[in-house]
Structure formats: C-alpha cells, structure tokens
Amino acid sequence: MEQVVDTVIIGGGPAGIAAAIRLQKGGVSNLVLEKKSFPREKTCAGMMTEKTVKILAKLLDLEADALPKDIFCNVTDTVELYHRQTMLTRSTVAKPFRKVMRFDFDNFMATQYKNMGGNLLENTCCASLDLPGNKMMLSNGDTVVFRHLIVADGVLSNMRELLGYQKPKLGFCVETHIPKEKLPGCDVERIYFGIVPKGYTWVFPSGDKICIGLGGVYQKGTPYEQLLKDFLARLGIDAKECTLKGAFMPFGSPVKQNRGPDNAILIGDAGGFIDPITGEGLYFAFVSGMAAADVILNDPQKIRPAFLKQIEPFARTIRQGNWLQGFFYSAVVQKMFIKMISGKNGFVRFYSDHQLSEYNYPYAQMMKLCRDYKKGKKRK
Fold first, then answer.
1. What is the pTM of this model?
2. What is the pLDDT of residues 279-309, one digit of tens each?
C-alpha cells in the first residue's frame, strides 16, 4: 500500500509527537513512525521545570495550571545539594520541580495525538529511504511518499547518518527506581556531586517510587553501573534488588544542520537538543518539535534553513552551556564550586528559580546572575 502525506515524522517520543500535534492542529497531513509500541520504557529521570510545564501547556492549548494533574507523579519545592555524602545546601524554591514517569507520560502524549485523528504507526520504522524521490519503504512493506521529513529517532539516530550528519557528543546515564519505603524521608530533590566524573548523581521522588541515577559526559571505560551500585550501597540499598537501566544521550552542542536536504530536519535528541549542564531534554524536545512544525506551517519551501533560524536562540543556549560544561566539571573548578556553594541556600534558590526553571540568563551571563543575586540580597 502507498500513502501520501505532507510530513513523515520518525520517532514518537516527546519531540516527534510535539511536532505531530502542532501539524495536526494546523491541518497538515502527517505520519508518525514509532519502532516500539506504547506504553514503552524510556530511561529518563523525568524532571520538568517551570519552563517545560509552560511550553507543554502551550502545545496542548492549556493554561499551565489546567494540565491534567495525573500526568505528574510528583511535585517538589525543595532541593538539596551534596558533595558525596555531605549536604551543602537545602533550599525551598518558588518554582517547584514536577516529575513524570516516561512510561506513562509518553503514552499520554501519543494518546493526545491519536485523539486528534493523528496517524501513528507503532512497531514500524523506515526500512529504506529515497530522499531525492521523497519516498520511503516501511518495515511493514508499505511505501510512503512525503514532502517533508522530521527526524526524532533519538540520540543514536539511524536516519541522522543517512542524512549525512555527524552524531553529537554523547553523555551516558544509568538509573533505577526503588519503592519509597526503602529510603524513608526522601521527599525532596537531591543532587550529588563528586560521585561520577563530569556529571552528577540524583535522588528524585517519583510518585510511590524514588528514581536514583547518575549521568554526565560519556567517557569510555568509566564504570557507570558500578558507580551507581556503590552509591546505592552508601544509601543502604542492596543493588542486587534493583533493576538498573542505562542509556546514551546527547551532551554537547546541537548537531550542525548547516548542510543537507532542505526538506529534512533533526529535532530532540536526534538533533542534540539537550541542556549540557543539567541534562534536561524534555524542554528542548518540545521546543525543537514545535519549531519544526511551525516552519512547515509557515515557510514550507525550504524548512531546514527556516528551522535553523527559528531554533537559533535555543541552540545558542546549548552551545554556551556546552562551553560552560567543560569549565564547570574540571577538577579545579569543582573543588572551588563545592567550597563556594556550601551554605549558600539563598543563591541556590535564586539560581533555581531564575536559571534552572526559566533560563532568564544566558549561560554566558552567569557573572551577571551572581551580581543580580548579590544586589537583591543587599536590598533585603
């Protein structure tokens, strides 16, 4: 069977579905190919900051406080920072952190799309691609003729290679979920430095479970799984009773899409859209997916150049963060940071509310953030 659609989207994760929802609302025919079936597992801590909640609400044409409450498994307004086992700060923030379980959340997003009449083919992928002819053969034997192609098949994207782009710098994370009763009293966000090189470790409450994991810039030979097992042991948790899952993620600058076919776009993890300091990816999944759909709706002749122009402010944030990452995770700076941040509860609160939750400051202006915090402190 042959289908004809305006846009094919490879990948049914948050980035791909965000693009698909936007196109569906705009009346542009589209098809989403997802190699697995929903609901499916996804290794991800599931953190949603304020900016992410806002853009999700925008995508769904809702006010932020009108989002279905059951999509969030946890809401926390307290964050603790540690160096290994020593607490450095404990701060109550004005803009809380929300958590989602990706197993449920991705299924929720896919259901939203299907309820709009969206065309989602699960357990289906692209078997072969004739890009000059705008045709692809699917794994189910069907043929699809398309005008535009959006690639959202993850950090290890096969389609990205077919389009001639290099993969982004990789990060790696490994995590597990344990019942809450195994770590009583853990009802706040905890971030640990000094456990994993060029990264951090987290303990996040997630509904009736606790998500414990670590991640950072991928370094071949680093025993990530063993590091997490050792960390679990220090928390008094038997790693043998835990299921550990690992995954690669982008952890650098966005993929350079300055050359390539004008009718194809990389978004989400496939395009390297992730915060290289925090590893936050859901925000950039929604941003890049919506931007891809918008250029198809508004400037459909050469979508790649139009997309790069629209996404540039967000790409700049990631590039600046990538530079800062190399500086921040150096041994000397980490030592200085641990000493400087100890006891600075107010600064962590200010940083969380203004940068982590909202991106009010470009990463290139961290000194201005520090000065503004000091000015505000003096005024009080």
1. 0.95
2. 999 999 999 999 999 999 998 888 999 999 9
Of 250, 283, 326, 355, the closest CA to residue 46 belongs to: 283
- Tokens 């996404």 belong to which residue? 311
CA–CA gap between residue 362 and residue 245 (Å, rounded): 33
* Both tokens assigned to 196: 């994993």
Report the pLDDT averaged over residues 63-80. 92
> Residues 33, 132: one domain?
yes
Range of the domain at 87: 75-99+170-250
Compute, in degrees rounded to 10, the torsion defined by CA atoms 145, 148, 152, 158: 60
Average pLDDT in the 244-261 region? 93
Q: How far apart are CA 75 and CA 286, in angstroms?
A: 20
Taking residues 254-262, report their average pLDDT: 92
Q: Are residues 118 and 216 in the same domain?
A: no
Separation in Å, CA 159 to CA 20, 84, 132, 156, 205: 18, 40, 15, 9, 35
